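Figure 2 data, in text form.
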Amino acid sequence: MKGVLFAVAIFLSFGVAQLAAQQAAPVAMSDSVVLGSARGAEAARHESTTNWVAGGFAGGMTLGPIGAGLSWVLANNSDATVALPQKMMLISQSGPEYMHAFEDSYASTLRSRRKRSALVGGAIGTAALAAVVTTVWAVYYYY
């Protein structure tokens, strides 16, 4: 009886080992994809987002928190693509995998920076609007 159980255990262990060997190994990202992603994020960090701060400020000053929210939505839906000459240069130098990783990383990083800038500008604009409204209200009712 012990011999039969031992034989079954050995048989099952070989079957499990073969099944595990047939599983697909996880695919590692290639160096070009990692490098393209890192360089895309770095390129997006060099783009200016001053216009989005100004737009958020204008939205916050005119409509308060609603204007700040609208500027955030506009920043989220903004076009964040790499220019065509730069795309062609990336393809010729590094290949399509690198370019795709670069574009994805560039777009997501730039869009998140734009959203943050629009929200900061909107918060400052909303605070300025609140200060103006409070000052006008205080002057009108107390003097």
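Caption note: Residues 31-142 form one domain.
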